[in-house]
C-alpha cells in the first residue's frame, strides 16, 4: 500500500504584520522595569528645519535645554540614557549622558540616530534587550511611557511597541527589541528613511495613552513661546499678581 503524501509543514509567520493590539489594561501599575533590560534614547540629531536650522535639543524649555529635560525624564524610567546628536556634541556631552552620532554625515533622520545608539549599546558591558526612544521636542511624554510600552511588547510578542494618544500614533515614541539592529541597518543601506515605514515591517503593539498633550511636539519657535506664555500665566495666577 503506497504511503500517503506528507503535508508540508506550516509556514513560519511573516515578520511583516499589521499592528497587534496591546494587552488589556495598558496603563502601568507600580511594577518597575527589570534593571538593565531597557535603555533609553533621546533623539536630538535632526536638522531643525521648522526651527530655522536651530539645534532643537539645546533650546530652552522651562529654563532647561529640551534634550536635557527629556533625558532626565527618561532616566527616571529606565536609568540608562544616551543622546543622539549630530552637531554641538560637546554641549550635549556636558549634560552628563553618552552622546552618539550618526555613522554617515548629514542629517539622515531619526532611524540613523536609533541605529547609532543600538550599535553603541551592543558593545557595552551589559547590552540591553530593549531600547525606548523619545524625541527631544516631546519633553512631556508620560512618566510611565517605558513600562507601559515594555509590558505591551513582551505581553504580545511583538517586535516593537509605539504610543498612541488622541487617535494619533507616535512612531518616534516607541520601544524596540535591540536585536532589530541588523534589519534597521539594511533598511537604511537600501535608502529607507521613514520611521513609520520601518515600523510597518514588523508586528507592532500599539499602546493607548489617555493624554494627547503629553505627546505635544515643541518643534517650532511658536510652540515653545506658547508653552512659555502659558507657564508664565499659570505662575501669575498661582501668586495672584
TrEMBL record:
<keyword id="KW-0479">Metal-binding</keyword>
<dbReference type="InterPro" id="IPR013482">
    <property type="entry name" value="Molybde_CF_guanTrfase"/>
</dbReference>
<feature type="binding site">
    <location>
        <position position="56"/>
    </location>
    <ligand>
        <name>GTP</name>
    </ligand>
</feature>
<feature type="domain" description="MobA-like NTP transferase">
    <location>
        <begin position="40"/>
        <end position="199"/>
    </location>
</feature>
<dbReference type="InterPro" id="IPR029044">
    <property type="entry name" value="Nucleotide-diphossugar_trans"/>
</dbReference>
<feature type="binding site">
    <location>
        <position position="102"/>
    </location>
    <ligand>
        <name>GTP</name>
    </ligand>
</feature>
<keyword id="KW-0342">GTP-binding</keyword>
<feature type="region of interest" description="Disordered">
    <location>
        <begin position="1"/>
        <end position="31"/>
    </location>
</feature>
<feature type="binding site">
    <location>
        <position position="137"/>
    </location>
    <ligand>
        <name>Mg(2+)</name>
    </ligand>
</feature>
<dbReference type="GO" id="GO:0005525">
    <property type="term" value="F:GTP binding"/>
</dbReference>
<dbReference type="GO" id="GO:0005737">
    <property type="term" value="C:cytoplasm"/>
</dbReference>
<keyword id="KW-0460">Magnesium</keyword>
<feature type="binding site">
    <location>
        <begin position="43"/>
        <end position="45"/>
    </location>
    <ligand>
        <name>GTP</name>
    </ligand>
</feature>
<dbReference type="GO" id="GO:0061603">
    <property type="term" value="F:molybdenum cofactor guanylyltransferase activity"/>
</dbReference>
<feature type="compositionally biased region" description="Pro residues">
    <location>
        <begin position="1"/>
        <end position="22"/>
    </location>
</feature>
<comment type="subunit">
    <text>Monomer.</text>
</comment>
<dbReference type="GO" id="GO:0046872">
    <property type="term" value="F:metal ion binding"/>
</dbReference>
<comment type="similarity">
    <text>Belongs to the MobA family.</text>
</comment>
<keyword id="KW-0963">Cytoplasm</keyword>
<keyword id="KW-0808">Transferase</keyword>
<dbReference type="InterPro" id="IPR025877">
    <property type="entry name" value="MobA-like_NTP_Trfase"/>
</dbReference>
<dbReference type="Pfam" id="PF12804">
    <property type="entry name" value="NTP_transf_3"/>
</dbReference>
<comment type="function">
    <text>Transfers a GMP moiety from GTP to Mo-molybdopterin (Mo-MPT) cofactor (Moco or molybdenum cofactor) to form Mo-molybdopterin guanine dinucleotide (Mo-MGD) cofactor.</text>
</comment>
<keyword id="KW-0501">Molybdenum cofactor biosynthesis</keyword>
<keyword id="KW-0547">Nucleotide-binding</keyword>
<dbReference type="GO" id="GO:1902758">
    <property type="term" value="P:bis(molybdopterin guanine dinucleotide)molybdenum biosynthetic process"/>
</dbReference>
<feature type="binding site">
    <location>
        <position position="137"/>
    </location>
    <ligand>
        <name>GTP</name>
    </ligand>
</feature>
<protein>
    <recommendedName>
        <fullName>Molybdenum cofactor guanylyltransferase</fullName>
        <ecNumber>2.7.7.77</ecNumber>
    </recommendedName>
</protein>
Amino acid at each position: 500500500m503506497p504511503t500517503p503524501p506528507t503535508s508540508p509543514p506550516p509556514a513560519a509567520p511573516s515578520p511583516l504584520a499589521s499592528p497587534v493590539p496591546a494587552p488589556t489594561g495598558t496603563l502601568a501599575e507600580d511594577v518597575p522595569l527589570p534593571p538593565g533590560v531597557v535603555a533609553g534614547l533621546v533623539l536630538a540629531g535632526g536638522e531643525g528645519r521648522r526651527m530655522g536650522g536651530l539645534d532643537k535639543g539645546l533650546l530652552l524649555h522651562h529654563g532647561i535645554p529640551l534634550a536635557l529635560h527629556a533625558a532626565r525624564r527618561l532616566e527616571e524610567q529606565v536609568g540608562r540614557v544616551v543622546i543622539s546628536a549630530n552637531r554641538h556634541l560637546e554641549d550635549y556631552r556636558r549634560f552628563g549622558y553618552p552622546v552618539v552620532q550618526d555613522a554617515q554625515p548629514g542629517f539622515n533622520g531619526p532611524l540613523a540616530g536609533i541605529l547609532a545608539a543600538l550599535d553603541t549599546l551592543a558593545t557595552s558591558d551589559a547590552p540591553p534587550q530593549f531600547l525606548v526612544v523619545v524625541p527631544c521636542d516631546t519633553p512631556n511624554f508620560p512618566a510611565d511611557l517605558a513600562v507601559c510600552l515594555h509590558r505591551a511588547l513582551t505581553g504580545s510578542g511583538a517586535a516593537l511597541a509605539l504610543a498612541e494618544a488622541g487617535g494619533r500614533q507616535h512612531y518616534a515614541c516607541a520601544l524596540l527589541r535591540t536585536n532589530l539592529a541588523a534589519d534597521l541597518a539594511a533598511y537604511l543601506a537600501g535608502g529607507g528613511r521613514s520611521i513609520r515605514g520601518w515600523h510597518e515591517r514588523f508586528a507592532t503593539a500599539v499602546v493607548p495613552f489617555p493624554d494627547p498633550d503629553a505627546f505635544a511636539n515643541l518643534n517650532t519657535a511658536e510652540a515653545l513661546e506658547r508653552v512659555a506664555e502659558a507657564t508664565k500665566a499659570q505662575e501669575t495666577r498661582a501668586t495672584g499678581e
